Amino acid sequence: MSHSSVLVTTFLAAAVEVIAGAGLLARGLVQRIPRSALQLVVGTLLSSFGTFWAVEGLGVAWPGSDAAILALVGWSAPAPGPARHRPRQCRPGRWD
Fold this sequence. Notes:
Elements: H1 3-31, H2 35-57, H3 68-76, H4 81-84
Helix pairs in contact: 2-3
C-alpha cells in the first residue's frame, strides 16, 4: 500500500467518525423537529441540488454560478404550500 493511499484511508476513517459523532450529538435536536417539516426541508434541498446538477450536466451555465442553488431553494420551497392547505374533501356518503 502506498503512502498516499494510507493517508486517504486515514482521512476517510476520520471523516466517518466525525460525521457519526455529529449525528449522535444532533440526534436529540433532530428528533424534536416534526417529521413533515423535516421531509419538506430535505425534499426541497434534494430537488434544488438535483435540478442544479442536472442542468449543469447538460452544459448550461447558471447565472450567479453556485449561488443559483439559493434561488432554486427559494423557488421550490413555497411549492408544497397550496397542497398542504387545500380544503378537506368529503367522501361520498359522508356529510360531516
